[in-house]
Amino acid sequence: MDRFGAAIADARPRVVAALAARLRDLDTAEDAFADASAAALVAWPNQPPRDPAAWLWRAALRRAIDARRRAAVRDRAVLDAPEPGPTPEEALLAAEIPIPDDRLRLIFVCCHPALAPDSRAALTLKVVCGLSTERLARAFFTAEPAMLQRITRAKRKIAAAGVPFEVPGREAWPERLDAVLTTLEIAYAQAYEDAALAAEGAIFATEVLRLSGLLAELMPEEPEVLGLAALVRFAEARRPARLDDGGAMLPPPEQDAGQWNRRLIAEGAALLGRAARLAASGPRQILATIHATHCARAETGATDWATIAALYDILRELRPHAATEVNRAVAIGEAAGAEAGLAALDAVRGVEGWLPYQAARAALSARAGRRAEARAAYDAALALGPALAERLYLEARRRELG
Length: 402
What we know:
By secondary structure, the protein is mainly α. It has helices spanning 3-23, 26-43, 52-74, 88-93, 103-110, 117-127, 133-139, 144-161, 173-192, 204-218, 223-237, 262-277, 283-295, 297-300, 305-318, 322-336, 338-346, 355-367, 371-383, 388-400.
């Protein structure tokens, strides 16, 4: 991604969230941002402006207001702006006003209980985070047309129900909280699977780190909120060691623990300790404990794979999911041998098109001496279009098999 594309991608969550809050319409916000992005590629001939987000905010708001005026003229109706409507000139004057950071507010809007549970996180990831429909379909293990239909229905439901674009009172937070946490968790997973932070979703690493910390401050008595904040910190702590000198991804057992961020590990441990004292365990706390067990290698010099496998046993009961089963199989392979890991992996169904599944099968097959199966699995993983760092790692392992 060039610097222009990176600047636009980095600004998108802030600007779309602010536009949606201002315009009270998700489709209009997305369309306006797309128009502003197209204009930016023409208006920024040499380099992005000093504040790309402010430029995009002004341009998108102006285009949205102009579009509404044209529509009002066509319909012979009087334009009724969502707020005292700014003129294009007033929008330009907004250059000196900080862009409202409404991401968390929009996340709560998109996680409204009026929406079907399986639509809340998907809509938020599409609107707030800008994930493509294709990537969302992969994240939710569903077909792309079905995902597009799900998002379209959710937008219509928000418009038809007149959902207010505001953070609900604290008494209404619990009914939306799980969807909010799921959204942040999936958004972070998109960044975590790209060790080099070079692909779509890279900005979510720092963004979810920030938002999860903010939620932990707002809801300090919610153990799953604390668990998610801890999980992200443990995972991000290992970021500095996730690439080798050639830019290839390194899995946790091969990373130099001396490069891990001790401050983030300490923050994660403190958050997880606070969650434990609340005595209400949940899946995000279990995931955080798994990551904490990985991080413990910085002190002990070894990874307790038996404990990690046992934690995945608990997680599969709390939240059954194919991804949990694949990760559990990897842990079993480390704790009890490659053949045991393959046996656990053989029980997982419907994830043949998921890159981590094929990578896990390839690695376990290679360790078990099943070279032909390993080669086939590595080829299948590479065919799924991994990010650069992951591709370099998979290609190196594939070459070792001849």
